[in-house]
Amino acid sequence: MPSLSCHNLLDLAAAADDAALPPSTASLRLPRVMSFATAASPASPTSPSMPALARRVIVSHRLPLRAAPDAASPFGFVFTVDSDTVAYQLRSGLPAGAPVLHIGTLPPSVADLASDELCNYLLANFSFLPVCLPADLHSRFYHGFCKHYLWPLLHYLLPLTPSSLGGLPFDRALYHSFLSANRAFADRVTEVLSPDDDLVWIHDYHLLALPTFLRKRFPRAKVGFFLHSPFPSSEIFRTIPVREDLLRALLNADLVGFHTFDYARHFLSACSRLFGLDYQSKRGYIGIEYYGRTVTVKILPVGIDMGQLRSVVSAPETGDMVRQLTEAYKGRRLMVGVDDVDLFKGIGLKFLAMEQLLVEHPELRGHAMLVQIANPARSEGRDVQEVQDEARAISARVNERFGTPGYTPVVLIDREVSVYEKAAYYAAAECCVMNAVRDGLNRIPYIYTVCRQENTTLVDAPKRSVIVLSEFVGCSPSLSGAIRVNPWSVESVAEAMNAALRMSEAEQRLRHEKHYKYVSTHDVAYWAKSFDLDLQRACKDHFSRRHWGIGFGMSFKVVALGPNFRRLSVEHIVPSYRRTDNRLILLDYDGTVMPEGSIDKTPSNEVISVLNCLCEDPKNRVFIVSGRAKDELSKWFAPCEKLGIAAEHGYFTRWSRDSPWETCGLAVDFEWKKAAEPVMNLYTEATDGSTIEHKESALVWHHDEADPDFGSCQAKELLDHLENVLANEPVVVKRGQHIVEVNPQVSACKLPS
After folding, report:
1. DSSP 706-719
2. Percent of the chain surpassing pLDDT 70
3. Which of 330-339, 488-497, 596-605 has the lowest mean pLDDT?
4. Which GO terms describe its molecular function (predicted)?
């Protein structure tokens, strides 16, 4: 249940959703299958459950489920767990005994069979709860918006290119389908969620909007989100017409996870440039302050399931395949690549590099071979067909040019390949080539390393391996022993292949041992446990705060306030105001009397009229408090005879228009300005958009109009520079929001009588 402190606001927000969002699809309704705990009231901020026993709700686009036709089985299919999916493998890292519920769509083969009976069957037998989307909605959501707009853009493919290359221009109707699908997921989660107890873990870009829908319904929900795709640079992300909606949705999670620091850095940059949000790093954790909540950012790549992979490597089927491959490729230098068929895997570039290798090193002809396994495409479209056609054409050309009877330089396998056959190729190949031009993580090099290490069929073979790895792949930072390449440079990749084949066995062993040590200790259980613990830590303050929902539709957000916060109400203020005989009213100018974003800061006639009305009451003493210069404020408020002004943060004070300006007992020697101003001028010339504000008592360097990242960096440098230059002066150098300010030191402040 929603927090009582935001109940009315949430009702208001929900009432506006029908206009702000597309209609929700009709989904199958299940009975409440879990018991619900009533949300703690704001007056009793105590979590009712033990974190270790909290249920984990894993939400992904697809359920980790396989369905094989079988007329004799219930519903005409045999259902089994798909243990190859990350969403299921992560269970190994969750606390023992903690219940786990998976929510997602059904496999395509059984999507048309969705019914209450099937949903209850999967829930009872697998703890899987299906989200049932109509076929046309799922097609628009997945193949339309996700796969042909969002996914290419996250991989740096702007929709300026022809749609045949995989990218589509933004389509508002497809975006509404995306929101409708995400709302259907939220409906399913809502049916079973106990928000005070459960931990919700959302996976990947298909469900980017889901945190907003859940936060709207459950302000205290414990929500984690992990993005398995790249997060592009802010310049790319800011091209999305609904960029604020998607970024705000991520900020509605408590914990946001990324594979690499680059992805997290791009996310933080987008938050800074779009919302002006800064982040802080404290004790190893990165946090973004967002309306009273701290959104934690986590950086850790997904590992592999060591137990599952070891069982595959040690299987008799794998051993038989290894022996067959060893015999078939006897005397050859075997390299292997395994990729999905899509635009970004660089299969064509890899084949061109193989061709270049054989051109530049004729001695490798008849010996070096590249086996490329092409996994089935995950989406549909002309782009997939063109990738397949290109790969076949280049491989055929290379084989025709350099092939001989019994020797095929490029072996392209574009059929279904079992896990045992893949493991056998990994074990038999002395080099793995991963040439993707952009990929979120790609665990293939991890799997290759383990297969080379754990294989027991080749008893006398030393444990060694070499990986040629694109620097634009998410696993690249974690594999420091790989030969990193720019996949766009065919010559560089060819030279890397040659270096791998000519590398000494001793160096191959050292690189292999380094990789295996990392992969075996940072497996999927390690990743899941780390994320789960950080999600609990990120949510530990939920019950010590009050939560208020504000905004409509995808603009919704939650304001978190301390337990002692009291909302000011007119009913409370007016009677107290009338009972009081001596009132001091202090009004901040910028951001209170005048809007923060207003360019013209001159007070309007209405503001002057209101201030005069307040000042006419003999029981009131009204002051404008500002950091602005006294001359500017005097000019603006000349019509206000009885208004007091505190200028330059109180350095100058005037009790009425006709009274003289008074100063606090501060140092009056301003010789320090002669040293500070040249330093500020230096940074102003070097930082486009920055300015210097000259006050009688202070100097202020503003960088709010400069580039956010560069301005912030320059402000840090300026702060250090001024502190060194003015170390022996009676001043204080401080940094504020978009400013660096130098003020006189306070000695004894003499208040006016």
Report:
1. S-HHHHHHHHHHHH
2. 90
3. 596-605
4. glycosyltransferase activity; trehalose-phosphatase activity
On whether the CB atoms of residues 276 and 708 are closer than 8 A, the answer is yes
- Encoded tokens for 631: 């001359």
Give the tens place of pLDDT for each residue, 594-616: 887 778 889 999 999 999 999 99
Query: Which residues does 588 contact at the CB level (< 8 Å), separation at least 6?
Result: 625, 626
Of 569, 6, 704, 57, which is closest to residue 293 (Cα–Cα)?
6
**C-alpha distances in angstroms, 715 versus 276, 280, 288, 739?**
16, 16, 20, 7
CB 523 within 8 A of CB 305: yes
CA dihedral 16, 18, 19, 25 (to 10 degrees): 150
Count CB neighbours of 83 within 10 A: 14
CA dist 588 and 607 (Å) reads 13
Structure tokens at 415: 């059929």
Strands 333-340 and 368-375: parallel
| Whole-Å CA distances, 384 to 144, 288, 353, 390, 439 | 15, 39, 21, 10, 16
Whether residue 66 contacts residue 107, with contact meaning beta carbons closer than 8 Å, is answered with: yes
Q: How remote is the C-alpha of 11 from its chain's centroid?
A: 29
Cβ contact 467:508 at 8 Å: no
> How far apart (Å, rounded) are the C-alpha atoms in residues 154 and 461?
41
What amino acid occupies position 333?
Answer: R
Q: Tokens representing 475? A: 């696993």
Rounded to a whole number of angstroms, the distance between the first and last alpha carbons of the chain is 55
E-assigned strands of 30-132? 56-62, 65-69, 77-81, 100-105, 128-130
Tell me which residue has tokens 């006398």: 460
Task: Please give the Cα distance from 490 to 433 (Å, whole number).
Answer: 13
The label of the residue with tokens 């109009």 reads 705
List alpha helices for 364-504, DSSP H: 382-402, 419-428, 444-454, 490-502
pTM (predicted TM-score): 0.85
What is the amino acid identity at position 35? Answer: S
